[in-house]
Amino acid sequence: MPIVARYAAEQVRAIAMPVGGIGTGCFALGGDGALLDWQLMSRPHRGWRPPYAHMLLRVQPAGMPPSLRVLESLHRLQLDADHGAAGALAGIPRMQPLGFEAAYPFGRALLHDPTLPLRVAIEAFNPLIPEATDDSSLPFGLLQVVLTNLSETPMEATLAFVLSNFIGDDGVQRDGRGNLVEFATAHGWRGVLMRKASAQRSPRWGEIALLCDDSNAVAARRWAFEERRAWGGDLLALIDTLLQQGVLLDAAPEQPCPPSDERSWRSSVCTRLHLPPNGEATARFLLAWWFPYRDLREIGWFQGEADGDSIVRNYYATRFAGALQVAEHVIPRLPELWTRTAQFVQSVIQAHTAPFAESALNCLAVLRSPTCFRLEDGTFCGFEGCSATTGCCHGSCTHVWNYEQATLALFPDLHRSMLEAHLRYGLMDDGAQRFRLDLPLGTNQRSLAAADGQMGLIMRVYQQYRRDGDLDWLRQFYPCVQQMLAFAWREGSWDADRDGVMENAQHNTYDIEFFGPNPMTGVWYLAALRAAAAMAEIVGDADFAAECHRLSEQGSAWLDTHLFNGEYYEQRVQTPAAPPHPATCTLKPIPDTLPYQMGKGCLIDQLTGQYKANRAQLGDLLPREHIVAALRAIYRYNFLPRMHEHYNNLRVYATGDEAGVVICTYPRGERPEQPPVYWAECWTGLEYMFARLLLDYGLREEALQVVRAVRARHDGTKRNPFNEPECGSYYVRSMAAWSLVE
To answer: Could you tell me which residues are beta bridge partners of residue 169?
Structure first.
């Protein structure tokens, strides 16, 4: 297994590595081996796990009594609960963590027990292969358990994977009626298939297959002691049965398992292993799932009629007829899928400095999280992040998705799909682009355009063309580019006087409007003009290309002359001379004193348009010496080696002795009474963007310090290395980290 990062035993508490395909849902491998965050049913639910979703180990050295362990640590138990330690299997001894090794999507939890001469490694895997989207979108997780005997005495062991049939129950909504469990096999693997007796058009209807690579594995649809639930009788029976018999047996192996009524059967798959002296043994478990439906209303992305049908079908479910078919497809291909993924991951590790490679690989967990999904026709959609049980900030939001580089680089078909959805359904008649896309597609209830979002979308069209080289595709969508850019020149819009400078209300990623010329949206505009000029030349539109070149040069000169203060670029705040276009502003009416302006501030985001232009090889948009000076100023003023003296009035993503890059500082004083809303926060997506710009202009050591600060904050001790929240978990902007290894 490739490794890019090792986390020590004291760093595993917060680790939860998502395991699952793109748009399929996922579960997570905890840093201590626990199976966490079961989010298979087409919506987020970080922190939830079924009543039973555990691996247990029975081990017996020759001539010694057997021991039973849960393959996870005490970290998972609430030891100070009102009635004693709370958590499933709380009374069974547990292992102790040794650490965690990872190179996403590979992860390995290392465990030991001080009383047993034994080490355990639990490895998780789901394929992630560039430009192989279907192979990277498979709804399964492979768990490989390696037992190592550290003694001269042979041992006999049993691995038991115990799992509740939780179909119908995702911890919030519950319908356990009609649950079935059947014996199942696939290519010699043996286990159980969980499903319901009748089909339902619900996100909680589907199938789960749990299989072991041991053809002699002992599967139990429902335990022989299933009825002994009162006063912990079932758990006592589980302990006694495993210690005495070594495996968990089925209640009635020769008879059909009746549908459960308002409760879920507990099932298991057990495999026996022999551990020679100083030797090892390995078992593999495959967990495959199939939940075909998604409810757009319950996940927070439905703009249809109040009583309209909000149920849609998942794309991955159209490829398979059930969980067992997923297993049939996957099992013969496991060696190939593993090798291709390992080759990709190893190529990243070998070519790049460890902090850059770790950030770039870990950020790909966003694609496998509930943040992203695909509609039945394959349309790729994404929230900004995930809240507790819903998506957070719907709409494939342009001014957030503009930052990420992973989908274009690795899965250009997904990038193209999202882009086309915006161009087909988000464009208004006057050229304004809805920065949040409505579902169902074509609903078109929202009518707000973001200046940075719209300019970034133009950039992404050009990047897609450069990636694919598809001239017919560019010709098809070039009129959309023209229309979006020309919207900036409409009355009341961003550049109504057509001088290459945005002046009027400019809604942006800080959920506010900037009024007056500023570097953040201004440089995005310069980048879009350059990209539009390039596309115009490619399709033979010389007049439009010439106009874009003129505006780009004129705007660049103006911004540099009027906004560069000798160290960095600042804003010239000005009340609009004309009413803003209705699609560009949320403030109605415009107040006399404009709130949330950056003014004299040093903004981390002042050169984001340059970051995107560099990815498209468009050259410097401003004088290079001033770009470098601004980057040095951001590092000097916004990068804080310690947050101990930093005052933050909103969300806290860095604190105490942690380091980070603050969004906006006021080194020359004159901080507005109401600075930009998120001015005091640290966002990893912006930090990665800034680090990439530092690399672009030869400031490598500064870039390393920035990325090391992010990694230190997400080192498993306090925060999950595979989840960098902003407005919600698994936040899309963090995928700007992929630019570090491009």
So the answer is: 174
Provide the pLDDT confidence category of residue 263 given band limits of 50, 70 and 90. low
- Structure tokens given for 62: 């020759």
Q: How far apart are CA 355 and CA 178, in angstroms?
A: 49
Q: How far apart are CA 337 and CA 345, in angstroms?
A: 12
Cα-based torsion angle of the residue sequence 187, 190, 196, 200 in order, rounded to the nearest 10 degrees: -30
Round to whole Å and give the CA distance between 325 and 621.
52
pTM of the model: 0.97
> ∠ CA 578-425-383 to the nearest 5 degrees?
90
Statement to judge: residues 313 and 454 lie in one domain: no
Last residue of a domain, one of 270, 293, 324: 324
* 350 falls within a domain: no
- The domain containing residue 536 runs over which residues? 450-741
Q: What's the mean pLDDT in 694-722?
A: 98
pLDDT exceeds cutoff 80 at 229: no
What are the tokens at 152?
């001269």
Q: Residue 252 and residue 64: Cα distance in Å, rounded? A: 32
pLDDT tens-digit series, residues 74-98: 888 777 878 777 778 888 999 999 9
Of 324, 353, 378, which marks where a domain is finished? 324
Amino acid identity of residue 408, one-letter, is L
Q: What is the per-residue pLDDT across 161-176, written as a single tens digit (0 to 9) for each?
A: 999 999 998 878 777 7
Q: Assess if residue 97 is contained within a domain.
A: yes
Residues 314 and 463 in one domain: no
Average pLDDT score, the chain = 95
Q: Structural domain tally of the chain? A: 2
Q: pLDDT (tens digit, 9 = 90+) per residue, 501-511?
A: 999 999 999 99
pLDDT at 265: 80
Q: Which residues of 310-342 are buried (b: 16+ CB within 10 A; e: fewer)?
A: bbbbbbbbeebebbbbbbbbbbeebeebbebbb
Burial of 387 (0-12, 13-18, 19+ CB in 10 A): middle
